[in-house]
Amino acid sequence: MLITLMHAPVEAAMTVRHPFFVSVTEINHNAKDKTLEMSCKLFTDDFEKTLRQVYRTGVDLIAPKDRNAMNKLVSDYVQKHLLLRVDDKAVTLQFLGFERQEEAIYSYWQVNNIPAVKKLDITDNLLYDYKKEQVSILHVTVGGERKSNRLINPEDKVVVEY
After folding, report:
1. Tally of CA atoms within 13 A in the half-sphere of 53 that contains its CB
2. I need a surface site. Which of 5, 32, 57, 136 has the fewest CB within 10 A?
3. How far apart are CA 160 and CA 138, in angstroms?
């Protein structure tokens, strides 16, 4: 993020680099297919640094030499840091894959056999082990109704009710 500061008598602008650390998770209930469809957006450089730090191995999500190894790292990390309970029952995230879009990595997930959703308990601490300034944005859509939440490290739990 680039912030430009202007001072009244000074005509020149002063430019300051101000990094931000954010993840965005979208959760959509597909009533027809009885699934939760999810995506997690993480900035590529932050995610790669986190995976290197946690797993002590080489990581290249942009042009992986071993796609299966990168799939395993992404899947393992997200499943440890994004936990869901649907109507007070723990559910298992099924990893569908990941892709790079511009400066971010999107990972895709699904939870099967979810005919309805009244309450979602979400624990999201993605990249909290990387930066204390990390923020998680969550968008949940059930029955066409979208609810959004923001979690600021160390806060990592939210309950969304419909």
Report:
1. 11
2. 32
3. 10
Q: Report d(CA 8, CA 39) in Å as an integer.
A: 44
Q: Residue 64: is the preceding peptide bond cis (ω within 30°)? A: no
Q: Where are the alpha helices (DSSP H) in the chain?
A: 44-55, 67-81
Which two structure tokens, joined as six digits, stand for 139?
Answer: 């968008």
Domain boundaries, the chain: 21-161
Q: What is the pLDDT of residue 123?
A: 98
| Residue count of the chain | 162
Show the beta-strand stretches assigned E in 18-156.
Answer: 22-30, 35-43, 82-86, 89-90, 94-101, 104-111, 119-124, 135-142, 145-152
Report which of 155, 64, 48, 53 is spatially closest to residue 104, judged by C-alpha positions: 48
Assign 20 a pLDDT band (cuts: 50, 70, 90).
confident
- Of 94, 92, 151, give the one whose Cα is nearest residue 125: 151
Whole-number pLDDT of residue 94: 98
- Across the range 95-109, mean pLDDT stands at 96
Only one residue has tokens 């936990």, namely: 83
